[in-house]
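Researcher: For the record, we're logging two predictions in this thread. I'll number them. Prediction 1 follows.
Model: Prediction 1, sequence and structure:
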Amino acid sequence: MKGSPKFYVLGLLFAAVWSSASVAAKLGFRSVQPLVLYQFRFSFAALALLILAYSLKSRELPKGKEWLRLAIFGFFNVALALGLFAFAIKEVAAGIGALQVGVNPLVISVFSAIVAGRRIKLNEMMALFFGILGVAIAVFPLLQDSYATPKGLFLLSLSTLSYSTAAVYFSKVNWRLKKLTINAWQAFFGALFLFPASFIFYKGGLNVYDLNFFLSGSWLAIPVSAGAVYLWLWLLSLDTVKASFFLFLCPIFGFVYAYFILGEPFTFYTLTGLLVVMLALYIGQKKSKPKN
């Protein structure tokens, strides 16, 4: 299966869909506040995934400490990581958001080494260095042209840290539950923890619940949060190394979407930064096992 056309077709589909998240968010922000869009996204995703999970024959409910583990995972992976990302992407170009997603596996690799107390390998350090360098090169002209702000980049960094924490935590837990069930409940808890912030920051006059809002939120909820995550877990279960290569395509797709859909600039700096990040992924992919 892992060498079949189906594997590569679904891998391309994963990269194409996963990379669209930043652009979809930017479009949604034209109608509503960031947390309003993301509250809708994860509430809708959780509802759809829970209905799917418990409409199947093998229905399973979390037990005992599993509820706490799912809550912790949902808090760091959804409420905190993507809540911060929602504010960050409001202030940075969608292409930079996609580029940062491509760097996430490199950060996770180093962060997991620190948590495990093992020595960080040379290829991991080199990969992270080139990953950060690539983002910096791509960001440099955007700071001057108001396509990115220091505040947005800082929030994006915090989002990456929270996402890495969630990924390392997920890898340390011996999960009994199926991946579909885990994804459903972590989305549920993420939406639950996100609600107080959505309520506090809500300003009615800034939100228009139009077709643009509904389409953007629905795309983020179903194809991205439900579909792409499931595809990624499926790819990883067949071949981790080959699956990692599809991460190379995510920043490329992201910049293509940002250029053609949002009209964001694609300059020599953008291309250079993109190539450097792809080099970083190449250096780190053999040992990196990222989760989305």
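Researcher: Logged. Prediction 2.
Model: Prediction 2, sequence and structure:
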Amino acid sequence: MAVTQTSTSETPAVDPRKPLAVSDSALATVLEVRAQEDDPGATALKVAITGSDMTEFQYALELLLIADAADDDLVYTQGPHDELTVVVPADSAMRMTGATLDVPAASTPGGLVIRNPNTPNPLDGLNLDLEGELPEQIQQVLDRAINPALASHGGYASLVGVDGTKAIVTMGGGCQGCAASAMTLRDGITRMLMEALPQLSEVIDATDHTAGENPFYT
């Protein structure tokens, strides 16, 4: 079941026991797919966060028997008549609270989207005991927090140099020429570097977005 994430600025009141809401349109889509299962009424939709690409979470959607849900999973119903049982793993629930499973806008081809007000932070849970001068500290953040997140897309970020309190960064691999790479650097890498290193005043994108294999910016 194809799904993408769309960010939203809306923050409606939500029940933390039901972190992911399901729109009427998405409900109809899921129920149509679920109807092909051997026992639709005993089948739930499981939605889990599996990783991130710096700016958005990545998700896995699957149908499973309600009886197979883990003991610590959040299990609840959605729909005007509680037609759909939703399962969200405990380790995904907080990062998904306030999100909605929906269908794309009319101009976007099929599948489902998750509109999530939460965004990933690769610095969470990391004890960054940074050492050395500013260039060495920047490199440590890139190596230990940022590049592991980019690696799942075959990309990486490199430090070109430091000009005073400005870091000059370039993106390579699968990130070079990617349509989302500029946004990733602006909304992801820049935010992470400046959060970890408050002395930074700016992160400059030195990527040649017209280069690389199948570049987007031509």
